[in-house]
Amino acid sequence: MKLYIRQRVFSWVDRFTVKDEAGQDQYSVEGEFFSFGKKLHVCNMDGMEAAFIQL
After folding, report:
1. How are strands ordered across the β-sheet holding 49-54?
2. Cα(25)–Cα(35) distance, rounded to whole angstroms?
3. From CA 8, how far away is CA 31, in angstroms rounded?
4. Domain segments of the chain as ranges
5. Per-residue pLDDT tens for 14-52?
6. DSSP state at residue 22
7. Helix %, strand %, coil % for the chain, to 5?
C-alpha cells in the first residue's frame, strides 16, 4: 500500500493527513507547537495513536 502526505508549506501548526492510493484518509498527523525539538503524533482515523516521532 502506498501512502501520500500533503503538507502546507506555510502553517502555524503541523497538522496534515496521510492518504492511501484511493485518496481515503488513513492517518492524521499533528505536531506539538510549544516543545523542544520536533514532535509528531500519528493517529489512525479512530483517534488512536499509531506512532510518535521525535526529532
Report:
1. 3-5, 15-20, 25-31, 39-44, 49-54
2. 27
3. 13
4. 3-54
5. 788 999 999 999 999 998 877 777 889 999 999 999 999
6. T
7. 0, 50, 50
* DSSP type of residue 14: -
Upper half-sphere CA count for residue 14 (Cβ side, 13 Å): 15
Please tell me the pTM assigned to this model: 0.77
C-beta of residue 14 within 8 angstroms of C-beta of residue 35: no
Pairs from 14-19 (Cβ < 8 Å, separation ≥ 24): 14/40, 18/42
Cell triple for 6 = 500533503
Scored b (16 or more CB within 10 A) or e, 9-24 reads eeeeebebebbeeeee
